[in-house]
Amino acid sequence: MNTTYDVKLGGIQQRENRSTPTFIARWRVAGKAKSKSFRTKGLANAFLSDLRQATKLGEEFDIATGMPLSMLAPQSTGPSFLEFAQSYVLRRWRTSAARTRETDAYALLSLIPALVTDAARPPAADDLREVLRIHALLPEDRRAELSTAQAAALSWLQKASLPLSAMGEPAVLRTAMDAISVTFTGAAAGANTIRRKRAILHHLLEHAVEQKVFTSNPLNEIKWRAPKTVTLVDPRTVVNPTQARQLLDAVANVGRKRGPRLKALFACIYYAALRPEEAADLRVDNCTLPESGWGLIVLEQARPQSTKRWTNSGETHESRSLKHRADRETREIPIPPVLVTMLREHIAEYGTAADGRIFCTRTGGTYSSSAHSYVWQEARKRVLTPAQVASSLAARPYDLRHAAVSLWLNAGVPATEVAKRAGHSVDVLLRVYAKCMDGQQEHINSKINDALEP
C-alpha cells in the first residue's frame, strides 16, 4: 500500500443535472484528485470534517483510495446482501407457492436498493426495482434480457450492495427497517405490509445464522414495536341472507356472458364459505349434487392468481394445495339444496373445462380477480343504496365468505364444525369473527336481566 501525508482538502460541489441532488466532496492526495458523492450536504460536510481531523492527527492517507488509513473499509470475504438475497430466493423457489415467491421478492425490492453504499451516480430507485423484478430475483432460465441501461443499473447495484456482514450493525438494520416502513412512493406502509416484510428479513437473517455469518439473528437485538394490525372481520362488511340473495341474482344480470357464468361461483363463496381461489378450482368430481336435499363438496385444490413470472407454469393461475393444509389434504363442506340446484343448473348450461373445472371462461380459462371485481361492483350498484355502495358492505366478493361464516356461528353451529368447513383453526376462527358473533346477544342479555331481577 502506497501512503502519503500530502493531502489538500477542497470543498463541496452540488450537481444539479439530476432529479435527486448530489453533493460531491473533493480533495487531493499526492496531487491526485479524489471525490465522493453524498445524498445530502450535511453528509458531505461530515465526511470532509473526518478527513480534516485525520490530517490534524498526522494520519497517512492511502494514495489509491484517497482515504486515511483509519477510514479504510476492511475487505469483505463474504457475500453482499444482494448476492445472499438472490440465493435466499432461489433456495426457497422449489418449495414455495407463486404468491410466496412474489411476497419474498416484494420485500426484497424495498430492502436491496436501500442497503447500498454511497457510490457515485446511483440509478433511480424505480430502475433498480425493475432490474430486480424482471431479472436478478428470478432463476436464470426465467430472467428477461436487460437493456444497456438496465445492465448498467444491475452492475452498479452489484458493486454498491453492502456486505451481508454489515447487517450486524444497528445503523444498517435501522436503514432496513426504515425501508420496509414506507411504500415505493414514500408514503407510510400499512401495518400488515410492514409486519410481512420484517418477517421475511428475519427469516433471511435466520438463513445467515445457519451459514455461520452471525452467531444469532441481529434483528432480534433491534428494539422495534410491531404496528398494530386489524385481524377482526368488521361486521359492517357482512350482508344478511336477503341481501346476499339479491346480490347473487344481480350478478346474473351483469353482461350477457360473464355475469351469468360467475353467479354460481359467488354462490359457492356464500353458501359453502369457499375462498375465491378454491371456487376457481372446483371440479365436477369434487361435488355430490343429488336431485334433492343437501349435497357435498370435497375440496382438493385451490387456483390462486399470481404474476406469471412467479408461477411454475408461466400462467397467471395454477392449481396448488389448499391453504394451511398439507399436500393432497382435503376439506369436506356439506352444501344446502339452494347451492346444489345452482351448481346443477350451471353445469347443464355451461358444461365444464377440459380438466373438469366447473367455473371457466368460454375458452376454458380462469376468470381474473379483476373480472370478479368488475361483476361484483356492478351487482352492488344494482342492489344497494348509494350510501351502502360507498360503504364497506360486501365491498369484495370475499366478504361473502365472511357473511357465510358469521351466519353459521350466529345460527348456533358449533365453532369446531364451522372451523372445519371454513378451513380455519378454532382459535383463529373465534378471534377473526369475534365481532360478528352477535346473533345471540339479545337472548344472552335477557338471561342476564332475568338473573338480576329479585
TrEMBL record:
Feature: compositional bias, Basic and acidic residues: 315-327
Biological processes per GO annotation: DNA integration; DNA recombination
PROSITE patterns: TYR_RECOMBINASE
The UniProt record lists the keyword Ribonucleoprotein: no
Top-level taxon in the UniProt lineage: Bacteria
Molecular function via GO: DNA binding
UniProt domain Tyr recombinase: residue ranges: 233-449
Coiled-coil region list: none
Keywords carried by this UniProt record: DNA recombination
One Pfam family per UniProt: Phage_integrase
Entry keyword Amino-acid biosynthesis: no
Region (Disordered): 307-327
Protein name: Integrase
